[in-house]
Amino acid sequence: MEKEIKTRVLQPTAEALREAAELLKRGELVAFPTETVYGLGADALNADAVRSIFAAKNRPADNPLIVHIWDKSQLDALCEPTETALKLMDAFWPGPLTVLCRRKPTVPDVVTAGLDTVGMRMPSHPVAREMLRVSGVPVAAPSANLSTRPSPTTAAHVLEDMDGRIPLILDGGACDFGVESTVLDASGPVPVILRPGAVTREMVAELVGACEVADSVMRPLKEGETAPSPGMKHKHYAPKGRLTIYRGRAEAVAKAICEAYDREENAVILPLDDHAALYGDRRTLPMGRTLLDAAHHLFASLREADHLGYTRLLAEAVSEEEVGLAVMNRMARAAAFDVEDVDN
Ligand code: AMP
Ligand code: MG
Fold first, then answer.
1. What are the structural domains, with CATH classification, of the chain?
2. Which atom of ligand 1 is nearest to the CA of 113?
3. 57 lines ligand 1 (CB under 6 A)
4. d(C-alpha 295, C-alpha 321), whole Å
5. Is the CB of residue 271 below 6 angstroms from any atom belonging to ligand 1?
6. Choosing a second label site near 333 at 20 to 30 A (CA), which of 51, 73, 145, 317?
7. What are 174-231's pLDDT values in tens digits?
8. Nearest CA to ligand 1 atom 21
9. pTM (whole model) above 0.90
10. Which residue minimizes the CA distance to atom 9 of ligand 1?
11. CA count, 13 A, side-chain hemisphere, 106
């Protein structure tokens, strides 16, 4: 990026939303809150504007963006959803579900990274919805972080990464879910989750009878393997300190974490609240009580660990059921798959 620009952070008043809409229509970038994480948006039909998202984030060009709409009437101009896709949209929109659909030629290549599908999402956050409605354009947006960093769940996180790179951040407070949307391939008879999120495998299966999870969700890609969800192949969500995840029975996990902690100068522990007592007076960044709490806290805790200068992060694994799968998918990548099974 050559020229520094002044980045403003505005409360989402009617005037600020009009300004956001004007910027989008002029081909500029706006960061905005959603119920998952903050997005960095551009007019999806303006290829130059979309290219500037990649520049602002240092994002690899082979990592496609999600197109956000506020009304289903916008679908027809952009893509060809299958019957199953429409059923999923009816059930889970507006909400944290991205459905891959065959794209129409109107969608620029840069949005889909050249793929013939486009990820479509209708967010439920009132600020996102109002911005989309007032601008009248479909908005291509990835998460509003610098590539490789944890996704932003507050306006302050966005400012930390994007100051001087974009003109406007709409401040909608802390995001509700805290992990990105579920990415679902509904092109075949059984939908496949390519990236887990708050719309869970269990919820999709209940609606349409069955739902698979791509097997690359919980393991690193093999050499030369194509990523079904390209974002998953890149280094992702990484704090500056080194993160290790410990998986197993709570007492065995706590024992292994305490031993690792005591060997380090500058470590911090990420436990679930119910286990906090197992760590005595060691430093912790608690993840809350439930899987939804853990999703809500995860990225903020990784950034907080960086701010506090911790060089070693020791986290408890959570259950991979329901929204826990999304938490573990992000945590495993943030840890570069450094996961220790303590029961074996
Ligand atoms: P982000 O919101 O920053 O995580 O970026 C959007 C993510 O959605 C990408 O990293 C991809 O993993 C996924 N995605 C978007 N469009 C597609 C697509 N057409 N096919 C597969 N995955 C996609
Ligand atoms: Mg992202």
1. 8-218 (3.90.870.10), 242-341 (3.40.50.11030)
2. 19
3. no
4. 13
5. no
6. 51
7. 999 999 999 999 988 899 999 999 999 999 999 999 999 999 898 888 878 888 888 7
8. 229
9. yes
10. 231
11. 14
